[in-house]
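note to self: the first set is below, dont mix up w the second
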Amino acid sequence: MPELPEVETIVQGLKEKIAGQRISRVTLNLPKIVRSDLKEFLSSLPGQVIERVWRRGKFIIIDLSRDHSLIVPFLFSGLI
């Protein structure tokens, strides 16, 4: 699992690359990680704008338009 400075570096890089971008399509490789209705989740993301990227501890939080957020945990290997 990455340390906080590494997580912060990743968050800063994501801010530069994806903040303000519109989601055009969604590909989900591990559907079991979605903790809400899968169909609703997949249909709600396209068209939303990434408004803010930040972290809370070792979680990356991506705030979207329409009052949605994606919470991205790091796996033990450091993968997201």
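second set (the one i keep forgetting abt)
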Amino acid sequence: MEASVGFGIIGTGNIAQFHAACIEKISNAELLGVLSKSQSRALQMAPKFNAPVFWEEEAILENPKVDVIIICNESGLHGETIS
């Protein structure tokens, strides 16, 4: 049995939706959370992919089940997000 890989996504735009759809297609992968500064977009995306919403970066980063974080916010914010 393969170990499950937990994913979190930061951002809720088109590329985030694309990545979430790809995660759904991987048998041993699970989307464990979505983080967004936009409440309305997060609340639209999360149920679509059966994932909880996180409002603080620390909360998704500290989740022990999340193995991979995919950064999909605005490209100009990537550096700030990872630091």
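remember for set 2: The chain has a mean pLDDT of 87.
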